[in-house]
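Weekly modeling sync, notes
Attendees: S.R. (lead), two postdocs, one rotation student

Agenda item 3: backlog of single-chain predictions. S.R. asked that every request posted to the team notebook include the full sequence so nobody has to chase files. The rotation student volunteered to paste the first one in as an example of the format we agreed on. Action items at the bottom.

Example entry:
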Amino acid sequence: MIISAPIIAVGLLAGNTFASDVGRTTSLPIPRFVSVKSKPANVRVGPGVSYPLKWTFVRRGLPVEIIAEFGNWRRIRDWGGEEGWIVGSLLSGNRTALVAPWSGANPVAIRSDAAENASTVAIVQSKVLVRVVGCDGKWCKVKAKGRRGYIRQTRLWGAYPGEVF
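Predicted structure, as returned to the notebook:
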């Protein structure tokens, strides 16, 4: 029998209280964002090598959301909502994000500062992978292809709305 972990408050972020389960193996918040560390990285139907493959990541650094833990396995969700199980050692705590993967061809500005009126450093297309340095609840500082700047947090898949880190 599986008993769910207790719910705890993980902090006040941008004026909202976010509650989260705690992973039974890692004691880290569930859900949480991480990135794919290795390639290829197999995702399975269940938590074990005896379960069939569901898909394989062939690109390192993609963001995924951990939604459950079972031993050394992590149940993940990708930006499209697909779920599966992956060995935890294939994941990294490094934060990355996809720029507005839901918006099709709408480009997003990387700004020189965390403000709408700040100068544009670069324009990036939907689904561009960026490294997330940190977020203040509204803006995230990112690195992408040699450029650094700020993107509205709501335009990234890889950081929760209002999350501060």
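Discussion: group reviewed the output briefly. The chain has no helices and 17 strands.
Action items: rotation student to repeat for the remaining queue; S.R. to check formatting next week.
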